Amino acid sequence: MNNVLAAKNLKKIYGSRGNNYTALQDINMEIEQGEFVGIMGPSGAGKTTLLNIISTIDKPTSGSILIDGDDIVKMKENQLSAFRRSKLGFIFQDFNLLDTLTVMENMILPLTLAKVNPKLIEQRTVEVSNILGIEDILYKYPYEISGGQKQRTAAARAIIHQPKLILADEPTGALDSKSSMELLQCLSDLNKSNGVNIMMVTHDAFAASYCKRIIFIKDGQLFTELHKGSSRKEFFQKILDVLKTMGGDNSDLI
User: Fold this and answer.
1) pLDDT tens sequence across 155-177
2) How far is CA 127 from CA 70, 77, 142, 188, 194, in A?
């Protein structure tokens, strides 16, 4: 299998000498083609720091990160911008949709910015809107649709340019339970049927149970990992057991 992501000896220190804080230490992890990986851990564990570094928003103090074979740590800012646009897709907790654009305009934004051929844009719009079940709301504005529809629009925007890796940051955080379930099922289907690679940071064991593998982080270091078997219910229980071992109940792991 090919590695979509390979992080080696990642370390992140904030602050100055004598007054510093180690947010991440000795992080070695890989995501292979076809994986849906969850990142979990207590508040302050380093989940957001890890996500920010992998998403090229922040740089590690030391270590390397290869995404699709390219070491993003060595890239200059203009290279990173181009890399982000072509190889990464983002789904945020608060949707990050532009209110002045329709669902379709929000969705095709990555393709528009990349000056993709209009015919290809049209083709991808039909494909992706059908996959995510938003074909009936393409001409509506974000304020006219539900939270679940907004997040599916955000997911459509994240995958429309066929990136190598989708980074989802608490994607169900602003959704009710029904919308959460629908979105998680969509992400799971995208992963299984379309081979979309996903890394999702979540504090929610139920959301995590849709992943194929969970990496747990505590105090900036890898704690353990779990692989899903055939049963999501059993996986959910195993996730809860690990969270209990880490200290604090599920609601504390934000």
Assistant:
1) 999 999 999 999 999 999 888 89
2) 29, 32, 20, 17, 11
